[in-house]
Every structure is written in structure tokens, then in C-alpha cells.
């Protein structure tokens, strides 16, 4: 079977622009959660978010792309460029149809959408932008990236709430197996505008704490919900032989994936999360004992944390594997979450260090070995990423050293 | 041993009729369902016509709560799923072996716009108002809720997702689902696509780029694919859902099989978010790859279900693509666009077109291209104008093209075909 | 109504708002008869530009006329005709 490797990373996160800034901040345990400045959130019950700071789109993108793009697409386009630079590849130089892109999405270009809805209803139909038809829709990042980098190969856009990033990376691996030379995969997301914010609040899962250090505390006794964030990552995927032939630096292998859906609440049937974890390990042909670290979903809702801890303990044994939630530094990034965790996992493999979960303290009864406060140094060969989304989505991804 | 993927159930909600039979009757009779927009006051818009579905959720078995809390597109998906499941006779004994994949281009945009109006006092409030009593907003905000709705309806616990590649979502969702079966991840998928985009913001954004037809005085003949006088597409809405299965799984339970999902591919034009180059180069490549995956020769294609949106650019673009991919056989093959009758329902239409292809294979009837009375010299294939045609159909090509530059192609064949 | 002439500078300003710009956005007098497409403005950019001109000057430009205005000079002349008639 074809082996799919990761040869490039483009990261844009509340804690840093680019892989190096992000990883340095992550190992330092820097908190990217702060009071919202992008819009006036003072009137809402929650007003903290993981905002990307210091990103000036005009510094990274052609001016011609600015009027037609939402903030999240601008970040995605920047991350795509960084990923190709990191991989040392320019897809426009590759044979036609050999490069493709699969992104995860959650709510499309929502800030752009809010502005055009306001134009329509406050001013009139003739005020709606000519770019609205595609700047809001879920496929926009895949489309804009394919155009900017002249990628005519297979494309895709998947929406499975916060689990979608794993599905996108797995779908890109599928395209490599079918013969694509190189794929860009992952997700970059943002819905930090007032109209997006009330949708987040409607989920009932957003923390109402106003201290950034006490707001997002997965697996803690005082877990009280999550903090939304923005950003994500895009990964360059290649078939291993071709990557080695061109002398590419290889971060790791996309070894396994599986996804499941939970039954509806009240059905009396159990969560299917454990099956997703086992499925991903089986797909990777990896025994649980071989896994060095689990990047958890970390919902920070007590009941959901218990379900996740139980699934991990069922697969690995209680406290038998180090687990971490670097999302505590960025907030939950929706379709960007898994790709950012994947980047962190690959950097963990590279550097032999597990990034910490900040602010949280594992509730003892969960039986987890949560890496808190400071990074833990140890050889990392195999990492499991767990992602869960509202609506029952479970997805798991196994990455291993090349 | 290759796992082959077959379709065993169809459910359709389309303008002009709810249910597969009503849909097929409309197409084979060549009737059109395009009319003045009644779902909202469209009087301020340039294009004020659409192909609407007469849909009353509670008459179709949805509860009052479902009618209130689910977006219209999600309601379509659940009702069409019930028809597809009943049609296939599948009972789900192993929830982990069944997936759900739903395609949608614009998700719950109708509900989102309605809620935006309430939360902003029609655009006056910025920031918008938060009302803790509005608890359904998140499900509209992230349309993967559509996959959850369908999966919880049927009791599936395999991988679930929404495929949202704009106007090729209807093909791409089914192509994605076929891979899940072929790879052995699951044995069956409840898959299809839905969109209910008839809402002011949709009209406004297509008005702004003059993509939709302004033929407001003659709505019944406004959608004119391949006609010299075509002047844009007519918006539609609807949904088609399928049960697809691994072929031996379907045979073992004695299921009626509509056909095989033999090949599929999607490619990108990497050119423009809305524009198409005239040469059809990337769509031709998608067709070639889909034919290759299906192990079908260009000459084997009996019918092409065109994207045929009725924009100037599109119809020329895909005519070129058919010639490029099929050579001279393109001239010998009937081609038609059912968008002439039921409009363009964005992400849903690709799945609805797959349903039309399966029924064409079942009945050996090619649906027509309605309203094609003045052929465009630049579109010089056999578009089956006005009237359905009896024609042996064993192998079908269906294509889609959409914003973002996405070009998709799918090949469907009869299920008992021997692979070469 | 309006007697203020719509100038090349006005067009450049609105094109920049509508379509964005890299570096200098000035269209030189030499380029007045160069087609927009060659200047790097696609049909979407021109539709957005047309809508912005209509709103800013309170005029309606017929779709066929806008589509037929292929160069800066043609568009400027068209807008001036419409504002004079308004």
C-alpha cells in the first residue's frame, strides 16, 4: 500500500504565524486566549476567544484577492503559501492535474456573509457584493487555493464540525493512493464576528468565564465549556517514494484514520468514540502500546470529557499513555482544529517533546496522564489525534515517524 | 477482489413533485416546474423566478418539532432518505457498517438568513443581538448537522460527513460515499444531496453577477440550456438521497439494483472562482479519469446527463469537454439537461441528476432538454430537445461544474456488467 | 442633475475598491483604450465596479451597456452620458 507522508506545514494560530512561531509559543505554554478585539463582544455572556494576532492580509496576499475574500480565506491562502514554501514545492511547476487540495470547513466565510446580509437588509439588494456568491460558501478555501497555486488535481471540501479536519487529511491520503502526486490538506477557520459569535453561544458549550486562564479547562474538575478560536493548518502530503526521490524533509506518515458517528442522545446506545480510536489504530496497523501520545479533543464539558477519557482508557489502559490538549492555548478552531493538532503532533515527533495542556488540571477520577504546565521530553514515534464535533462526529488520525 | 458499488434505493424531492415517480413523470413528459418565486417577496430582484418545491413538512411525516427546528434543506434530506430506505428495503443491523454522506452547497442558508434578520432587526444591529432562547442556530451554522439528521433518522454509526463543493456537491458526495464502500470502510452508505437556497441573499448574490435568468415574464420557459437565447440559470431547490451498497451485500439480501457507480473523478480548473475557459479542458480530464476508473470506453456511453445550467459560458464549456473526452462519439450520444425543467438546485442537483440517470437506465428513456427551440451553433450536439426519447441506456455519463472551478464526472452502468 | 464629470481618477478609485490593487493602481492616459481584461480586470471585477458606480452616482447602467464598455474610456464616457441624462 502507498505510504503518504507529510513534507510541508503551513500554520496560522492565535499563538503564532508560521510553524516556528507557533511551535515556540506552544512549547512555552503561551496562552492565545484573550478578550475579543475583532468586534464588540462586551454585550455577550462570553467574550474570550483565541484570535490570530498580527496577521495583516495585505502583507501576504495580492491586493486583488482582498475584496473577494473573507478573513478565514486570507489566512488559508497565507498558510497554503507557507506550506508549499516549507515543502520546497511549487505545484504550478508540477505536471497538470497532479496536485490537489482538500479542506475542511465549518461555517464558510462567515464574517463576509454577515457583512453582505447587513448590506442586503439594511441598505438593499444592490449593495450585495459581486463576490458574495463564493466568498461565503463552504468550498471557498479549496477553490481559492487551487486557483492561486494552479492545482488542477482532485479537490474536496468536507464539513463534519470539529472532526472535519481529520476527514480532510484522510481524503487527501486517498487521493495520493489513487495517484495524485501531491495534495494540500487541512483546514483554516474563523467565525469571529458578532453573527458567528451568537451561533457559537447557541451551542451552549462556550465558557462564560472571563479570566483567560480559567476559561477553557478540559478534563478539569471545574471544566466549564470551551473557548472558540480561529486559525488552523494546511499540510503538504506526498507519496513517500516520490518525496524521498526529491530529497524532501519528511515530518511523518499519515498512517491511519477512522471516523464514527455517535447515536442520538437518549437512544440508550453508547458513544462510538472508542471504535473510531480502534479503527484508526487498525488502519495504521499500530498496537495501542506503540502509541506515544494522544492529542485529545478536550471538549471541556464534564460529560464529554468523561466519555473521551473512558474511550482512551479502554483502548490504552488507565493512565497508560500521555495525553495533551494544546488547544488550551488557542481555543477550539473548528475545521482548523485537527490540522493544527496534526502539525503539533508532527513537530512532537520531530523534536521528541509533547506540548503541554495549559491552565487545566486533570480530574483524578478520569484516570488520564495529562501533560500539564510544561512540555514533556520523550521520544515520540506515534501520535493519535482525537477529534469530536457537535452532532456526534468522532474522528481519529494516527501519525507516525517516517 | 474489487468491491463494486451499486445503488439500491432512490428518494427524490424535486420541483414539480415529491417522490421519485412524480419527478420522473415530470421529466419524461418534458414539463417545466419553473415559476415566479412564491417563497418570499422577490419583487426587488433582477431574477424573480425559480423552480420551487411544494413541500409541507408535516404532510411528509416530519414532526412539528422537526418542522420548526430543521432547515428546509435538512427536512428534504430526511424525507428523501425515508423514501430511499423504503425503496431499497435495507435494514441496518450493523450501524457501524453504514455511513451517511450528504452534499450541500449552501447548507442552511435559509434558516441563517431568517435568524440574521431577527437577530439584527433587519440589518440594523451591529453587533447582532444574542437571545439565549434561540438554541437551533448552531445546527444551521455548521451544516454537518444534515449528516447527523440523516444518520440519526436511519440509525447509522459509521463515518458521517457533509461534502460541500458548491455546485458539484451532488456528484462529489456520491463519489466520496462510493470510495467508503469500495475501500471496505462500510458496506452501505445513505448518501445524496440537498439544497434549499431560495432566499433573498441567494437571489441577491446571483443578481450581483447576473448569473440567473431575468426572463421573469415567461418563467416556464426561462431555463434554456444549449439554446441560442439562454441568458442564465434558473434557481431551484430539492434533494435526492440514495442507498448505495457493496454489490455482493446487495445481492445477498436480494435487493433490486438500479445500477453500478462505476467511476468518478473531480478536477479543478484553477482558473477563476466563477469563470470557465471555453475549451472544457479540466472537465474533459475528469471525464477521462471517471471512464478509466469505470473501465468504460468513450464509445460505450449511451447518454450524457449534462450540467447544462443555461449560462452562456457553461453550455459552450461542457460541449467542448464532451467532444474532447469522447471524440466523435460525442456527436452520436444523446445529451440532455434536466435543469431546463427543474432549475439548478446548486449542491443538490448533481444527486437529482444521478437519480434521473438511474431511471433512464431502468426505463431506457432519455429525458429531454426542455425549451430548446433555437439551437446555438456553438452547441452542436444532440441535446434531445423538447421531447423524451426511447433509447437503450446501459452506460451513462453525468457531469457537474461549479464555482470554485470544480469539474466532476461520474459513470453509471448496469450492475450485471462484466468488467473487461 | 450632476454636472461633476466622472474622471479617470474616479474610475481608478472605484476599481481599487471593487477589485483591489497591487502597488500603483493608476491607469495611465495611454491605457485609456486598453481593454479591462488586458489591464487585469475580469467580468466579476467590472460587475462590482458597475454596481459601485451606480450607487455612488445614483444612476442605472443597462447590463448590455456595461458589458459593452470594454475599455476605461468607454466606461468613463458611458457613466458621463448616464449622469448627464439623470
Automatic annotation (TrEMBL), chain A:
GO biological process: fatty acid biosynthetic process
GO molecular function ontology, one term from the record: 3-oxoacyl-[acyl-carrier-protein] synthase activity
Source organism superkingdom: Bacteria
Family the entry assigns: Belongs to the thiolase-like superfamily. Beta-ketoacyl-ACP synthases family.
Gene3D superfamilies referenced in this protein's UniProt entry, alphabetically: 3.40.47.10
Ketosynthase family 3 (KS3) domain segment(s): 1-401
Name of this protein: Actinorhodin polyketide beta-ketoacyl synthase beta subunit / 3-oxoacyl-ACP synthase II
Sorted UniProt keywords: Acyltransferase, Transferase
Keyword Repressor: no
TrEMBL record, chain C:
MF annotations from Gene Ontology: phosphopantetheine binding
Coiled-coil positions: none
Domain of life, per lineage: Bacteria
Keyword flag Secreted: no
Pfam family, one: PP-binding
InterPro entries: ACP-like_sf, PKS_PP-bd, PP-bd_ACP, Ppantetheine_attach_site
Keyword annotations: Phosphopantetheine, Phosphoprotein
Domain Carrier: residue ranges: 5-83
Protein's name according to its UniProt entry: Actinorhodin polyketide dimerase
Amino acid at each position: 500500500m502507498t505510504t503518504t507522508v507529510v513534507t510541508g506545514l503551513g500554520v496560522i494560530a492565535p499563538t503564532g504565524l508560521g510553524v516556528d512561531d507557533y511551535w515556540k509559543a506552544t512549547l512555552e505554554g503561551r496562552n492565545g486566549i484573550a478578550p475579543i478585539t475583532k468586534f464588540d463582544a462586551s454585550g455577550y455572556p462570553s467574550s474570550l476567544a483565541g484570535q490570530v494576532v498580527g496577521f495583516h492580509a495585505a502583507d501576504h496576499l495580492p491586493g486583488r484577492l482582498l475584496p473577494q475574500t473573507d478573513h478565514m480565506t486570507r489566512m488559508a491562502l497565507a498558510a497554503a503559501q507557507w506550506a508549499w514554501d516549507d515543502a520546497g514545492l511549487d505545484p504550478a511547476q508540477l505536471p497538470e492535474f497532479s496536485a490537489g487540495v482538500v479542506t475542511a470547513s465549518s461555517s464558510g466565510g462567515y464574517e463576509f456573509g454577515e457583512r453582505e446580509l447587513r448590506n442586503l437588509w439594511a441598505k438593499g439588494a444592490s449593495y450585495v457584493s459581486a463576490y458574495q456568491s463564493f466568498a461565503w460558501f463552504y468550498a471557498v478555501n479549496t477553490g481559492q487555493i487551487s486557483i492561486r497555486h494552479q492545482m488542477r488535481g482532485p479537490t474536496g471540501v468536507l464539513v463534519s464540525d470539529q472532526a472535519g479536519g481529520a476527514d480532510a487529511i484522510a481524503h487527501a491520503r486517498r487521493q495520493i493512493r489513487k495517484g495524485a502526486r501531491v495534495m494540500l490538506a487541512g483546514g483554516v477557520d474563523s467565525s469571529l464576528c458578532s453573527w458567528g459569535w451568537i451561533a457559537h453561544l447557541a451551542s451552549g458549550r462556550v465558557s462564560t468565564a472571563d479570566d483567560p486562564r480559567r476559561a477553557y479547562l478540559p478534563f478539569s474538575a471545574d471544566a466549564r465549556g470551551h473557548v472558540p478560536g480561529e486559525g488552523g493548518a494546511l499540510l503538504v502530503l506526498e507519496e513517500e517514494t516520490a518525496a524521498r526521490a526529491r530529497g524532501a524533509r519528511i515530518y511523518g506518515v499519515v498512517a491511519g484514520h477512522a471516523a464514527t458517528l455517535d447515536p442520538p442522545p437518549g437512544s440508550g446506545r453508547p458513544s462510538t468514540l472508542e471504535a473510531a480510536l480502534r479503527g484508526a489504530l487498525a488502519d495504521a496497523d499500530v498496537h495501542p502500546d506503540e502509541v506515544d501520545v494522544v492529542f485529545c479533543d478536550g471538549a471541556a464539558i464534564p460529560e464529554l470529557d468523561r466519555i473521551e477519557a473512558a474511550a482512551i482508557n479502554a483502548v490504552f489502559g488507565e493512565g497508560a499513555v500521555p495525553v495533551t490538549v494544546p488547544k488550551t492555548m488557542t481555543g477550539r478552531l473548528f475545521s482548523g482544529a485537527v490540522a493544527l493538532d496534526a502539525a503539533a503532533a508532527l513537530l512532537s515527533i520531530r523534536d521528541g517533546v509533547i506540548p503541554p495542556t495549559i491552565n487545566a488540571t486533570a480530574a483524578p477520577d478520569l484516570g488520564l496522564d495529562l501533560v500539564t504546565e510544561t512540555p514533556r521530553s520523550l521520544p515520540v514515534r506515534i501520535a493519535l489525534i482525537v477529534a469530536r464535533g457537535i452532532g456526534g462526529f468522532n474522528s481519529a488520525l494516527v501519525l507516525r515517524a517516517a | 477482489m474489487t468491491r463494486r458499488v451499486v445503488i439500491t434505493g432512490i428518494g427524490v424531492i424535486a420541483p414539480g413533485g415529491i417522490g421519485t415517480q412524480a419527478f420522473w413523470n415530470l421529466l419524461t413528459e418534458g414539463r417545466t416546474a419553473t415559476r415566479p418565486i412564491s417563497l418570499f417577496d422577490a419583487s426587488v430582484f433582477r431574477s424573480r423566478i425559480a423552480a420551487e418545491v411544494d413541500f409541507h413538512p408535516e404532510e411528509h411525516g416530519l414532526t412539528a418539532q422537526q418542522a420548526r427546528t430543521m432547515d428546509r434543506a435538512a427536512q428534504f434530506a430526511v424525507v428523501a432518505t425515508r423514501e430511499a430506505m423504503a425503496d431499497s428495503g435495507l435494514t441496518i443491523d450493523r450501524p457501524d457498517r453504514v455511513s451517511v454522506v450528504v452534499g450541500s452547497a449552501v447548507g442552511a442558508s435559509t434558516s441563517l438568513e431568517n435568524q440574521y434578520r431577527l437577530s439584527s432587526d433587519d440589518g440594523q444591529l451591529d453587533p447582532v443581538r444574542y437571545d439565549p432562547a434561540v438554541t437551533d442556530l448552531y445546527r444551521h451554522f455548521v451544516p454537518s448537522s444534515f449528516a447527523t439528521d440523516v444518520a440519526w433518522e436511519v440509525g447509522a454509526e459509521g463515518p458521517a460527513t457533509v461534502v460541500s463543493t458548491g455546485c458539484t456537491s451532488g456528484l462529489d458526495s456520491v463519489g466520496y460515499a462510493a470510495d467508503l464502500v469500495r475501500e471496505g470502510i462500510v458496506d452501505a452508505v445513505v448518501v445524496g444531496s440537498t439544497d434549499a437556497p431560495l432566499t433573498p441573499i441567494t437571489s441577491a448574490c446571483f443578481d450581483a453577477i447576473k448569473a440567473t435568468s431575468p426572463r421573469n415574464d415567461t418563467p416556464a420557459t426561462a431555463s434554456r440550456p444549449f439554446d441560442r437565447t439562454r441568458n442564465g440559470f434558473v434557481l431551484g431547490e430539492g434533494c435526492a438521497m440514495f442507498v448505495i451498497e457493496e454489490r455482493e451485500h446487495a445481492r445477498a439480501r436480494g435487493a433490486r439494483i438500479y445500477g453500478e457507480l462505476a467511476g468518478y473523478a473531480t478536477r479543478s480548473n484553477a482558473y477563476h472562482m466563477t469563470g470557465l475557459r471555453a475549451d472544457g479542458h479540466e472537465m474533459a480530464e475528469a471525464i477521462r479519469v471517471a471512464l478509466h476508473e469505470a473501465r468504460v470506453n468513450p464509445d460505450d456511453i449511451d447518454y450524457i446527463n449534462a450540467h447544462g445550467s443555461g449560462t452562456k459560458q457553461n453550455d459552450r464549456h461542457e460541449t467542448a469537454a464532451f467532444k474532447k473526452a469522447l471524440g466523435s462519439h460525442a456527436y452520436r450520444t444523446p445529451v440532455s439537461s434536466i435543469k431546463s425543467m427543474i432549475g439548478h438546485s446548486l449542491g443538490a442537483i448533481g444527486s437529482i441528476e444521478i437519480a434521473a440517470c438511474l431511471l433512464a437506465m431502468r426505463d431506457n428513456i432519455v429525458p429531454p432538454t426542455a425549451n430548446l427551440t433555437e439551437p446555438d451553433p456553438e452547441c452542436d450536439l444532440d441535446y434531445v430537445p423538447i421531447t423524451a426519447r426511447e433509447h437503450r441506456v446501459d452506460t451513462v455519463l453525468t457531469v457537474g461544474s461549479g464555482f470554485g472551478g470544480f469539474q466532476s464526472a461520474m459513470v453509471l452502468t448496469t450492475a450485471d456488467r462484466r468488467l473487461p | 442633475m450632476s454636472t461633476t464629470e466622472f474622471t479617470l481618477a474616479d474610475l481608478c478609485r472605484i476599481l481599487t475598491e471593487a477589485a483591489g490593487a497591487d502597488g500603483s493602481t493608476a491607469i495611465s492616459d495611454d491605457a485609456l483604450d486598453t481593454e479591462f481584461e488586458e489591464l487585469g480586470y475580469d467580468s466579476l471585477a467590472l460587475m462590482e465596479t458597475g454596481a459601485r458606480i451606480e450607487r455612488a452616482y445614483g444612476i442605472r447602467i443597462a447590463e448590455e451597456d456595461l458589458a459593452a464598455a470594454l475599455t476605461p474610456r468607454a466606461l468613463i464616457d458611458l457613466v458621463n452620458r448616464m449622469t448627464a441624462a439623470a
